[in-house]
Amino acid sequence: MLLMTYSKYFPDESMMMIRDKFETMDESKTSMLYTLGLKDPTMALILSIVAGGLGIDRFYIGDTGLGIAKLLTCGGCGIWTIIDYFLIMKVTKEKNLEKYKKKQKLERDRAVERAVDLIAHPKKYDKVSAKGASGYVMNLSFTQDGEIVNKNLVLDTEKIAEEEKYDGYYSIVTSELKMDDIEIREKYRGLIRIEDTFKITKSEFDTRPIYVRTNGHIDGHFTTCFTALVLIRLLQVKLENRYTVGKLLTSLKKCNCAHIDSNYHQFFYYDEILENINNGSRTIFSTAPIRTENIPILPKP
């Protein structure tokens, strides 16, 4: 769900370019996105409306020079301020994209540096530690034990140059020649959602393999999995797609409730996700004891 969470920060035409990175990025690497210092286009627009004449909007997105110019000219006597009402969100997204491109180039440069070191000192690496750098080394092979077979290792400069040439672009091979670029991107976005849903049903809800054999049991199995998928998707929408399905399920599984007294129950786990689920709903996740009569009961269908 990273793509859905961060899509507001980037231009629409760039989303296909960054899709692959977001789709393959594990949760341990998502902190990289926070270090980029991405600016919220909506916040930039608010600042432009409230204090655009003072250049605060430009200072916010990192345009210090233009911010000073707006401040000294009172927003270009108001004209520049009005123009920025219409431009600031687009400019903010473009600047966010530039930050992302620079970060991706830096990561590739680091991988190339490791590839050069691998060629010079192949005994320092194995199949696992060479991951990332191995893609830029020609004639690279491994033994069954994962050790590098040192046979004329060469840096693949053509591949590096080819990747650099297309920084900021994402190409799509399609047979739909009658569609325009916007229609093609929308079709591929739909495919992303479908692929993500299949991944969730298989990995999180154990839809397959199936361990039942009668038609009734099979129908019940898939109905249960489909219902769970709908509920977790609705929960993601409620939480504005801030959390992955895996994180949501982890929190919900840890949230166990026990009967501690004749008229009291208590939950023994509480975190940020459960707190956000509480807001605006009838749930009562909390670590404090709860009277039985205060526990909401869902109406019978």
Structural write-up:
The protein is mainly α and 301 residues long. It has helices at 2-6, 15-24, 31-35, 41-51, 56-61, 64-72, 74-77, 79-120, 157-165, 181-203, 215-238, 245-254, 272-278, and strands at residues 137-138, 141-142, 148-149, 154-155, 257-261, 264-267, 290-291. The strands form three sheets. The protein has a three-stranded antiparallel sheet with strand order 5-6-7, with no helix packed on it. The chain has a two-stranded antiparallel sheet with strand order 1-4. Strand 2 (141-142) and strand 3 (148-149) form a beta hairpin. The two termini are 32 Å apart. 15% of the residues are buried. The mean pLDDT is 80.
List keywords for this structure.
301 residues; mainly alpha; three-stranded antiparallel beta sheet; two-stranded antiparallel ribbon; 13 helices; 7 strands; 55% helix; extended
Radius of gyration equals 26 Å
Helix content: 40-55%
- Averaged pLDDT: 80
SSE string: HHHHHHHHEEEEHHHHEEHE
Number of helices: 13
Count all strands and give the number: 7
How does the overall form come out from the CA principal axes?
extended
Main pleated sheet: 3 strands, antiparallel
Uncertain segments: none
Sheet/helix structural class: mainly alpha
Widest beta sheet: strand line-up? 5-6-7
Beta-strand percentage range: 5-15%
What is the terminal-to-terminal distance? 32 Å
